[in-house]
Amino acid sequence: ESEAKDPSAAHRWLLLAATAGGTAVITGLLRKKWVDAFACEQKHHATAERLSAALDRIDLGIVLLGPDTRAEFINRAFRNYFGLSDAQADSKPPFIALLYHSRDTGVYELPEAELSAFIARRIEMMRTGDSTPIDINLANGEVLRFNCAVLPDGGRMLSYTPVTDL
Q1: What is the pLDDT of residues 10-32, one digit of tens each?
Q2: Is 24 helix (H, G, I), strand (E, B) or coil?
Q3: Is residue 146 within 8 Å of residue 133, measured between CB atoms?
């Protein structure tokens, strides 16, 4: 009976009810935000998968490098041109490792004495973002035109266009 007449007990009950209601509202809003973020992430993932699949179906070799010069994406054409296994490509190798792999497997049609200077020039072009195209002669007779584009995040997009018929 004394609790029913005690105004501080009523205030505590009201405060408890308000806190429980506020917690429920905040939890609901956070859950909605999380579900929306998850749906957005799923949509972006699906778009990335479609883009990856599309890039794997063209004859243009594509390598996307992160700002640290590690390969974040290597398409099928590049893997084929340079004899790169899926395991090697999926390990996100640094750009220099891709060049050394190509050198070591004899992909380039260059005398051994010129390989070091060629690799050094390619590394410098990539680092500076030099977009001057260079033609790369492969040992199998194919010619690829190399281009480097600087991406907004500081990464690079390297493209290798087949130009043998030109």
Answers
A1: 888 888 888 888 888 888 888 88
A2: helix
A3: yes
